[in-house]
Amino acid sequence: MHLKGIAMLLAIIMVGTYFQTVTGFGLGIIVIGASTAFGLTSVAIMAAVVSLVTLANCAFALPGSTKCIEWKSVRLVVIGVLPGVVAGVVLLEYLSHSAASVLQCLVGVMIVYSGLNFMLRPSVRTERSGDTSFFVSGFSSGLTGGLFGMAGPPLVYQFYRQPFDIITIRNMLLVVFACTSASRSVFVGVQGQLNAEILLLTAVSLPIVTLTTYLGRRFPPPFSVETMRRIVFGLLMVIGSYLILSALQRH
Q1: Where are the beta strands (DSSP E) in the chain?
Q2: Which terminus of the chain, N or C, has fewer Cβ atoms within 10 Å?
Q3: What's the domain count of the chain?
Q4: Within 13 Å of residue 239, how many CA atoms lie on the same side as its CB?
Q5: Structural domain of residue 50, as residue ranges?
Q6: What's the first-to-final CA gap in the chain, in angstroms?
Q7: CA dist., res. 10 & res. 130, Å (int)
Q8: How many helices (H) and strands (E) would you count in the chain?
Q9: From CA 167, how far away is CA 2, in angstroms rounded?
Q10: What torsion, rounded to 10 degrees, do the Cα atoms 10, 30, 80, 71 define?
């Protein structure tokens, strides 16, 4: 990747890291979507980079926050995440070699779904959902995390429906993202797919992630949560729609 492409990628990672630090998710969706839209590199490479970068973001964002977590729900989700990640990585490898346009269209659909899901806000339950629903959302999260490097959509819907406060939801999302990213990175590494390009992009991204995570915690956005939601929604809808349309035009 040339220097201009690396600079663009670092800027995208900075934006995604900031959103994830202040909202609990967004890094994978923004980075995978924007890098694919600009044609910076393949989905497979960026998914691997995002997984490694997400670990760094969570490592800096979580300390001092682990007390505000509903651990039973997190454990059930993580149990579902592990097989989902394996299935997602295997499916990504197949689509990357045989159906690149289909893969791009699927990325776009997932991003649009994420934007709608984030903006519409599911109704909050008066009681916690059953254990099975947390396992299923964990498997779905692992599948999308393994396939796209985007573990957020299924979990965001599941967690925001629960009678948990916003801080608890944010911290639970970060914990599960850390587990998803770690399991995905280990599985890809065992397969020998963590090549020099992935490791180099991760290395140059880590200082940006570290600094942006600190700034996100130290300086939250100077506007309301509702405004933040609209910004994220608009950004995701633009990226997702572009990916879908460009993929359809190839056929």
Answers
A1: none
A2: C
A3: 1
A4: 29
A5: 3-249
A6: 27
A7: 40
A8: 10, 0
A9: 40
A10: 80
